[in-house]
Amino acid sequence: MRYFSTLLLLLSLAASLSAQTSFSGLVVDENDEPVIGANVYLAGTYDGTSTELDGTFLFETTEVGEWILTITYLGYENWEATIQCDQSAQSFEVKLAQSTNDLEAVVITAGAFEAGEGKKSVTLSTLDIVTTAGATGDVIGALQTLPGAQRVGEDGRLFVRGGAAYETKTFIDGAYVAQPYTSTVPNVPARGRFSPTLFNGTTFSTGGYSAAYGQALSSALILESDDLADHTLTGISLMSVGGSLSHTQRWENTSVSVSADYTNLQPYMGLIPQNIEWDQAPKTSGGQVIFRHRFEEGGLLKAQVQHHASSMALSTLNPQLLEESIYVRLENDYTYAGLSYQTMLPGDWSLKSTLAYTRHEDRTRTIAQINERQDAITGNLQLSKGIGETHLLRSGLNFIYEDTQEGLRFEEHMEEHGVKEPLVAAYLEDDWTISKKLVARLGARVEYRTSTEELTLSPRWSLAYKTGEYSQIGVAGGRFVQTPTTNFLFQQPGLQSEEASHLLANWQWQKSGRTIRVEAYEKSYRNLALQTEKELNNEGGGFARGLDLYYRDRLSIPNSDFWVSYSYLNTERTFDRFNTPIQPGFASPHTLNVVYKYWVNRWQSMIGLTGVWASPRNYYRPDNGALAGQTTAFRDLSFNWSYLTQIKDHFTVIHFSVSNLPGFDNHFGEQFSQQPAADGTYPATTIRPPAKRFVFLGVLISIGEEGASIY
Fold it and tell me: What is the model's pLDDT at position 113?
């Protein structure tokens, strides 16, 4: 729940009340259409803002004298004007000219949704993520509104294009991240661990991604951490589920951010009816420190450490015998530390290096005691260089070392399992500009898994061709391998890596705040872990094929931003305990998302709605794997409202949100007893969300320097 403070923080439009000169205006393109998200600032200061949905901007400064007002937007020529800061209100109307170098630009888009600084084709920005109703400030929740992502309400993780959740991996600054989701108990959805405010770039790749990323069969969530903080700012959050305190200090070449947070859902759950018998509602406490420093020669050092401890306890049905209830308590400790450095080297080579450490401990107390601990050290070293005007060469090394230990104790019986998985990889990739309208990305990745002495070669390729001034087509494909999950490796350490092949093609049109995207794909699986009557082996396989549609419009309706995504999925596989092809229980053939946001100037408020519909999913019997039935169609309509005001001369945001506003009765199949009843049948109980709705109220008070803005 610490992400709610992130949500409120990003909604803040704080500007110092003591500022003396104000600047306002309108920024349009050559067709007199609003330019959304252009950077407007005084060069050499921290004072500035970004243009709104209607192309307008407003900010203040305490600077005096002559300065240069600058407006920048990727794909357009920079606009500059010399102005006098003289304690007056000044207004500008600016028309940006499209950059001649960008008129024929073509970029690789197949399989990738990119957002952030330096991306002209912005799909979801950080602000988009935290203002999407129903996402509750979670990166994962917002990404689930994009095509290709499945809605698995009882789990909460990313399921992409017929792939299980473990087939999607997270990377921060190029390095693989272990355990990116919060710990939870079965049928209580998890959340992403990392705040969207930490990142200035997000790529959600649903297939065919770069050779720089491995160990992901279906999808890669690629996050680029933020650079120096823009300004000094203190945030105080008071929430219906807890509170947080944060402070960021900015110096000329250094910034340090420190935050602490505490959430406890016990008071909230005492007011809202629950489908779970909680003995202790989820509780979390922790904090993080982020350090950034830019050296005189231009190198940038970034360091982050975060630690959080959480716990929850509940009474639930005994999976061995559903007629009985058992007590379950889960405690988790999670630590993440990341260190990255990037700089330019002689010969115009660019160096980017990242080292990360994760420690994850789960302690479960029920009829048995289960302790699980994972230590992971990961790293990435990448060199890149432009060669002439037609090639951008990237080469790099990755390593992953994961040590997972599990101990189980039931009465006098004890079991211990341990798996150590070292892996090293190298990759080489070239972005080749064949012509102004045709670009190719050709690469290959080599991985060596020491535990099984496997050496794998994974070629990757992408092509993009510009078909018109605003449209292009793209194709991509390649081979992808991944180590089986630790649950399987505990039973059979010698399992070979699982494998998938991707082939996808898309068409994209983008102009003046509107984007249309159509993408078809086919994915084939081999070597999936499969449990037969005799052994656990790599004889599983299957396919996933489908069509994704996406439309976003920030122009047609004044002060509005909305997108619609639809996914069609056809998939079957043999895997786990299913020896005959089935449609996996996490796969919905049809998923529709509609996200709408509206800025009400009169009320100084942002209002958002998100509607979701996903077709029923299958669920299966535990004894013979036969089809047992289908879930209900997943339905959700979520609402949020953010009101901007002032308390004691400090800028304040009051935020209210509610998920599943109409109270749709979703259910996610049935949980079967692991032991048959006297008549030979397997008793079952319906799996439902912890509660029909989640209601949140929070207040953020921002205390910043003159001209400070969170954007």
Answer: 52
The pLDDT value recorded for residue 185 is 87
Q: How far is CA 509 from CA 116, 466, 474, in A?
A: 19, 10, 12
CATH classification of the domain holding 353: 2.40.170.20
Q: What is the mean pLDDT of residues 687-709?
A: 78
Note whether 507 and 548 are within 8 A (CB).
Answer: no
Residue-wise pLDDT for 538-581, tens only, equals 999 999 999 999 999 988 898 899 999 999 999 999 999 999 99
Q: What pLDDT is stored for residue 12 in this prediction?
A: 43
Query: Do 83 and 120 fall into the same domain?
Result: no
Going 549 to 555 to 556 to 560, the CA torsion angle's sign is positive
Nearest Cα to 225, choosing from 385, 76, 336? 336
Q: If you search the block for the tokens 């309108």, which residue do you land on? A: 26
Q: Is residue 220 part of a domain?
A: yes
The answer as to whether 193 is a domain residue is: yes
Prediction pTM value: 0.84
Give pLDDT, residue 1.
Answer: 46
For residue 202, the Cα-to-chain-centroid distance in whole angstroms is 7
The CATH number of residue 31's host domain is 2.60.40.10
- 90 shares a domain with 143: no
Is the domain of 264 the same as that of 185? Answer: yes
Q: Where are the beta strands (DSSP E) in 173-299?
A: 175-177, 199-205, 219-225, 233-239, 242-250, 254-264, 277-294
Residue type, 342: Q
Are 68 and 145 found together in one domain?
no
Q: Which pLDDT does position 645 carry in this prediction?
A: 84
The number of distinct structural domains making up the chain is: 2
**Backbone angle region of 608, left / alpha / beta, with phi > 0 → left and psi within -120 to 50 → alpha:** beta
Q: Are residues 29 and 130 in the same domain?
A: no
Average pLDDT (434-446) is 93
Domain end position, chosen among 95, 120, 151: 95
Do 504 and 611 belong together in one domain? yes
Question: Is 342 a residue whose pLDDT tops 70?
Answer: yes
Give me the mean pLDDT over the 438-460 stretch.
Answer: 96
pLDDT tens profile 281-316: 999 999 999 999 999 888 999 999 999 999 999 988
Q: Please check whether residues 175 and 323 belong to one and the same domain.
A: yes
> Exposure of 414 by Cβ count < 10 A (0-12 exposed, 13-18 middle, 19+ buried)?
exposed
* Angstrom distance (rounded) from CA 367 to CA 328: 8
DSSP 125-192: -HHHHHHSTTSTT-HHHHHTTSTTB---TTT-S--BTT--GGGEEEEETTEEES--B----TTS---B
Is residue 330 within 8 A of residue 311, CB to CB? The reply is yes
- Shared domain for 116 and 73, answered yes or no, is no
Domain with 127 in it: 112-704
Between CA 132 and CA 565 the distance in angstroms is: 14
